[in-house]
Amino acid sequence: MLLKVETHFNVRNVTFQGSWLKTNPNNTLLVTFDNNNAIRNLRLKNSPELSLPDVSLYFKYLDEDTQGEYELQINIIFPGIRSPVAVTKRVTVTVSVPVSIPVISKTPESELVEDRDNVTLTCSVEHGTNVQFKWLRNNIMVGPSERHTFSQDYGTLVISPVKKEDIGQYICKAQNHISSNLSKPTELIVFYGPYNLAVNSDQGRKTEGMFIVNPEELVFFECIADSNPPNTCVWISKTKNGTEVLMTGPRFEVKPYELPQGKEFLCRAFNNMTKKQDETKFTLVMARLDTVMKTIYRRPMTEQRGLHRSGHEDATEDFGIYEFVSVPGKMDSTQASCRSLARLDSVKDLHTTIYDVIRHVPETPTLSLLK
């Protein structure tokens, strides 16, 4: 950088002496000079130079310390004039420095619990002028919200309180009008849950909080919930006299042939970090799950013309596969037609499940039987 000083007279015909100073942010003497000599301040790491008799100030390289306000003070004695002429000139220098790689710091560094803790993420650079910051979580921009607040330059992000959806990798982008850089990812971990607690089993058929299992089978149940860290699970049996803790752990083994009909169980999940818990209950019913009937009935709509109309010719939604599963001992009658079941308001009251597997109206006449 050259701070050019222009003269409108022959500098070789005058006598002068003066100095260059940096007046802001600190008052610092840079160099003193006269017609023949220039003395630089060698204590400065970036000491500027003069090429006499030109008193323009020259910097070999620029950094953030170069930025500031400068002042030239000079006394000139012209031929035939005894009194020197004092001249003072000022200039402001703005230096744009490329941003260095930003670094993220997190406060606190300890574990974070959902709905309880706050976290502050700070992005900083060692070098750079007029820096602005942006935040990304899993490569998606993070903006202001009720829980997300930022400093004026977006260098600080405060999340209050943290929630499950704040989990992810955070990256800070530092930029000015000449450069930009990305930080290394910082992982934010939040303890949460349990959510969406459910009991599943590969052997049993589940419907409305009830598992129907074959009496001779050994059945395994799993208690699953969305939680971090994983839950502590407790299996409990419920009776008229109270409850009994059977075991702890996510997996539960049951021998149905050793249990009374309609046995009720409960799974309770507890998160040791969030101190929250949830529970779900289910009833175990023993019955043979034999398929009574599977069939497909297809009839083209064109064949309906001219036939005796029974009121069902346009019931296109009746086409499909139906599976009838009957649980012994739970129905008053040993037989139930498709029409009677369809009229019932609550099929589950009969402990009977109907599965509509396929709905399809064929384009061509066909009659098939699904084995």
Features of this protein?
five-stranded antiparallel sheet, 371 residues, Immunoglobulin-like, 1 helix, mainly beta, six-stranded mixed sheet, 29 strands, 4 domains
Report on the structure:
- It is a single chain.
- The protein is mainly beta.
- The protein folds into four domains: 2-93, Immunoglobulins (Immunoglobulin-like); 103-188, Sandwich (Immunoglobulin-like), CATH 2.60.40.10; 193-286, Immunoglobulin-like; 290-371, no CATH class.
- 2% of the residues lie in helices and 44% in strands.
- The chain has one helix at 338-343; strands at residues 2-3, 15-24, 28-34, 38-40, 49-51, 54-58, 68-77, 85-93, 103-107, 112-113, 119-124, 132-137, 140-141, 148-150, 156-159, 168-175, 180-182, 186-188, 190-200, 205-207, 210-213, 219-228, 232-239, 242-248, 251-254, 263-270, 277-286, 322-325, 353-356.
- The strands form seven sheets. The protein has a six-stranded mixed beta sheet, with no helix packed on it. A five-stranded antiparallel beta sheet has the order 4-3-2-7-8, with no helix packed on it.
- A hairpin with a 3-residue loop joins strand 3 and strand 4.
- The protein is rod-shaped.
- 17% of the residues are buried.
